[in-house]
Amino acid sequence: MASRLKEIHQSIARNPFNKIAVMVLRIAIGATFIISGFVKAVDPMGSVYKFQEYIAALQFSNLAGSEVVMAFALPAIELTLGVMLLTGCLRRATPMLMLGLMALMLPLTYFLATTNAVADCGCFGDAFKLTNWQTFWKNVALTVGLIYLLLHNKSVPCIYGPIIQWIVMLLTFALSIAISVIGYGTQPLLDFRPYKVGTHIGSKLQPMSEDDFVFIYEKDGKQQEFSIDSVPNEEDGWTFVDRKKITPDLSPAQKAALNAISIYDSGTDVTDEVLDSTTNQMLLLIPDLPRVNRAYAFVINDLAKACESKGATFYAITSASQAEIEQWTSLTQPTYPIFTGDDSEIKMLARGNPAIAYIENGVVMWKRTFSSLPAKRLLTSKVPLARLSDDIAPSYQLWELLWPYLLIMIALLFVNRIYPVVSYIVNLFKKKESHNQQSDN
User: Tell me, what's the pLDDT at 209?
Assistant: First the structure.
């Protein structure tokens, strides 16, 4: 049996299409790992939230608190392995390491596919979504391809020399960490979420006609809701009490796809009042109120006053319970109103706890973590609110990281060719000198 398998392996290795298959698999699997690692690296807070979901679903309470480390490490590993496979670095070790990673991912994604314990695996962040079954079969395909590469990857050489391969690995790992550090400290360097800068939010679910309301009437002390087509006759003893907007039964992701967000004040929907498209708003977004540094409270109060003086209304939106809001209020004495919203919607709008988003005429102008906000600049300068975030330019910062990396990778190709070129030239001179000596003799 073993000899038969060896014959099959040698037959495949001798096949002229084997090298083509290796190169195609390197490109396909390497690109998949690169994309998966990159989209997670640009949005580390998104990965933190996803790891929190995993830990809760799998009941791995001993891993709680390590989400940030994993959110930095996993994309760096994926991105590095993807680049190494694509370029042919460490031809034996790279497929082995990838298979080790798949040995963890395959059972995990099978568990998710069969139980749906986490609705979205988060393999490609918010860039695009796969169902749990699609993710599982994707991992099966990757595993099969990696097994082939484990057996035949050495048939195609690496584009870099042995020492330079380690430089490529360390350089790519450092790039991923740098991208994640900036994304974690400010906002993702590429925003794949629905509420990106320049989008209009809060208006897509506004009622357009009376069909979007239910009407509340009262009779004999009992209240009842009616649609516009079934409103009762007041001559029959019914008294009009109120009308209520019908809120579509959509998930946070579905509402996000419509660029819609819901904001509540003690259970009453106040989205239209808060996100008034004729005014400007500075939103303080707090997904986890109990974990907010209380030292921020005084600065937040000053910011609220500064925003009012600059023509913008300052609001806080949190997913906290009423008891947690009351505790925060008693400790910090806020000078701004605090509303509630869905935890997922708050996290989709901006990353950070807390985060700041500036809305002008219903359009998201900028957003950033509160810790990165130049608060003194807002309090003391005459800079318009719309320009307050000019000190960060996510796409520009990303390009500032990528172009030196790409230049170094190209330069390493030339460095890698210096030795063989020099060796070739030296051999030419040696041959010429030897030929001349023979001619003289």
Answer: 47
